[in-house]
Design goal:
Lipocalin, two-stranded antiparallel ribbon, alpha+beta, eight-stranded antiparallel beta sheet, 15% helix, 40% strand
């Protein structure tokens, strides 16, 4: 008798702790090359503070759907780096900054390579003011720098998947 009760309790415990289904059903989806992805830059990026090769925080701005299934969820992580950097310099030369979002994390946690996801900014040049005022008034105006390149937090960048991939997606 005790033996049957013990087995019944054991089977009940196993059935309670065994998942019967996923919360989200998944299906294999084909994400075609050129699928549009909107990316949101999550930090201020300035040519004064960033250097080429540094990572930039970015996330997917909105869900990417294929046949009604989410293949890339809003808020997914992106891999982005500074690809061009030039600080503002003397004689009014402007700073310049460029970032490239190379990859985005798909619904199944794999990474998809992107193309065309580039944001850039060039500061305002002050070369004319620096040269004219420096020539007329004082040599020290040659030390005037241009404005820094600046990409504000919240900037939306448009990119596209670089190739066709198959991923597990949410229905």
């Amino acid at each position: 008798m005790y033996y049957r009760t013990f087995i019944s309790i054991g089977l009940l415990a196993v059935s309670l702790f065994t998942p019967t289904s996923n919360l989200h059903s998944t299906v294999k989806k084909r994400v075609p090359s050129g699928t549009r992805v909107l990316i949101k830059i999550n930090q201020n990026v300035s040519s004064k503070h960033m250097k080429t090769g540094e990572s930039v925080s970015a996330i997917v701005a909105s869900d990417v759907l294929v046949d009604g299934a989410i293949v890339i969820a809003a808020g997914s992580r992106c891999i982005a780096t500074v690809t061009k950097h030039k600080k503002s310099w003397y004689v009014g030369q402007p700073g310049q900054i460029q970032i490239n979002v190379q990859m985005v994390q798909a619904f199944d946690r794999t990474f998809i390579q992107l193309t065309g996801a580039i944001a850039s900014s060039k500061g305002r040049s002050k070369q004319t003011e620096s040269v004219i005022i420096g020539y007329i008034l004082c040599f020290f105006f040659y030390l005037m720098t241009g404005d820094e390149g600046y990409i504000p937090m919240g900037t939306i960048v448009e990119g596209y998947t670089a190739g066709t991939v198959f991923i597990e997606a949410s229905e």
